[in-house]
Amino acid sequence: MLSHSGRYMQEISWAEFENRILGRGAVAKMIVVNQDYVKIYLKSSFKNDTAFAAVFHPVSGNEPNKGPHYMMTIGSIESFERRLDAAEQKLIPGEIIPVTYERTKAGLWNLAGWILPTILLLLLGRYFLRAQGRGNQSMFNFGRSTATLIEKEDTHNITFDDVAGLDEAELEVKEIVDFLKNPGTFTRLGAKIPKGVMLVGPPGTGKTLLARAVAGEAQVPFFTISGSEFVEMFVGVGASRVRDLFKNAKEKAPCIIFIDEIDAIGRSRSRNAFFTGANDERESTLNQLLTEMDGFETNAGVIVLAATNRADMLDPALLRPGRFDRHIYLELPNLKEREAIFTVHMRPLVLDKTVDKHFLAAQTPGFSGADIANICNEAALIAARGKKAQIGTTDFLEAIDRIVAGLEKKSKIISLQEKKIIAFHEAGHALTSWLLPNVDPLIKVSIIPRGKSLGAAWYLPAEKSLQTRATFLEQLCATLGGRAAEALVFSDISSGALDDLEKVTKAAYMMVAYYGFNEKIGNISFYDSSGQKDTGFQKPYSESTARVIDEEVRKLVDGAYQKTSALLSEHREQLTAIAELLLKKETIYKEDLEHILGSREESEKSMSRAV
Ligand SMILES: Nc1ncnc2c1ncn2[C@@H]1O[C@H](COP(=O)(O)OP(=O)(O)OP(=O)(O)O)[C@@H](O)[C@H]1O
Ligand SMILES: [Zn+2]
User: Fold this and answer.
1) In the structure, which protein residues have their CB atom closer than 6 angstroms to any atom of ligand 1?
2) Choice from 161, 208, 336, 407 to test ligand 1 binding pocket (greatest atom count within 8 A of CB)
3) I want to staple 528 with a disulfide (CB 3.0 to 4.6 A). Which of 301, 402, 445, 513 is the partner?
4) What is the ipTM for the molecules in this complex?
5) What are the Cα distances from residue 443, in Å, to 37, 259, 335, 384, 587?
6) Which domains does the chain possess?
7) What is the pTM of this model?
8) Whose alpha carbon is nearest atom 29 of ligand 1?
9) From CA 589, how far away is CA 443, in angstroms rounded?
């Protein structure tokens, strides 16, 4: 008996595995755990082998992969795979050995529950591929593929000089550059450099550019891959691409891996907890990514940068410590930043004296860095077409017109009436949440469109481990505040509240069917399809209970909506004041709200009675 991670087990050596188990069609599956050992699950038919059973006793595993298994220590995943490949000719026809990759972080989250079906599918996919290609053979070699998606680029000419208006973000990534340049200085002091950094921001704000500049500044290789390229791939290919990517990167360390559009693979799983099959490929890719992130040392010299437009959509597993635990937010540039971006992109251009950067920046509110780069390029083309010796202001204005037209088509530019609706919508959220004492404090409200959202409010989440029913109720009201304000002011409502309504519906179902907050349903927690919990455990409920749940949810939401509407009509003057300030300043802060509404403590006192 020997002890491995605190448990007693019978270990099988590679030689014993090769001689006694391989080539007998005995392996049900193998799971590679944490780089260093493999769990071997044998088919029950193999139990008849008394000679084997006399020597080896399986570990009676409880979680997460149930059932007795054997352990085998491996030097590294690479050497294990090499051995498997080499042993391929030992297999009997039709013998298939499914190998999956897993990590054990006991209790944190149950990986096996969702990865196993994925892997099974994956194996089937590979199996058929193989069967077609070269007869009914084994499938050891699965998942290895040429990494055509991964390109090492020459980024050494891109530096922070090419990035404008992202001073804060630049400051944050500076540390990474220093580390890549002189890892010794950091490791000697025991400093931990983040492995993964998430760049979050609307399209075209320079996420890719910043990542390239980090590599360029540090003079290290840059590996890039895009999440969206995985989506339509054949099963199994995504995961193996990720594995190859990290393998290559580790050989070239120090270096940067950049994963663009990570949301394409890293979208939250809980959303589609009930749909299986469709997302298997994405999930196995995501899982492989997590495995890789966990599998290398903090100071190994590989830093993974990822970019997304929507951090809220990402699977929380990606954001845990040791993965992408550092986030850098990039926003659409303000006036001064736009001017700086114009400066960068005008550098190679031949301009006449009329061109005024400040003026152009003022003409382009809501434009991203990419839009501005486009304008500069377009202006040069227009001037060239006109056979001019220099590019002038009129060329820029014409370029702006063209790009605005293009943007309007993509409905990125919003009309004044739309802007008014958005302002009142956000003012509704702000005011409701301000008036309700249990809602998290508001920091900032904005009607500058970013990503898919037209406006947004930011809250400071309180560090609470318990949420009371009153808190839930008030949160419902605050979320409904947007639509209620639209209805009150415009006597019409818009589709802009869709996200809010999704949130409200989910929260209301959670309250009624999950947290036991509803008197009719009582203190019973059903696993509900709108809930977040992905344990896979579901208590069934009858048709009639389902009907009661639906009714109670409706009542709850209707009640909250009425409360919100009443609150807003009571404070209609303040609502208008907030909306008008938003229209004027586009982004307002806590202090602005205090100016209109008084300090929040006061409203707490008066409102704790009213609601
Ligand atoms: N802050 C900036 N300074 C200078 N140029 C910028 C800036 N932001 C964007 N650009 C220009 O726009 C181009 C596209 O930006 P980039 O690809 O980095 O955006 P992104 O945030 O990665 O966008 P997406 O989310 O669409 O992938 C850059 O190559 C650069 O020319
Ligand atoms: Zn809203």
Assistant:
1) 163-166, 201, 203-209, 260, 307, 309, 341, 344, 369-370, 373
2) 208
3) 513
4) 0.94
5) 48, 31, 22, 48, 11
6) 2-134 (3.40.1690.20), 151-329 (3.40.50.300), 335-409 (1.10.8.60), 416-610 (1.20.58.760)
7) 0.50
8) 209
9) 6
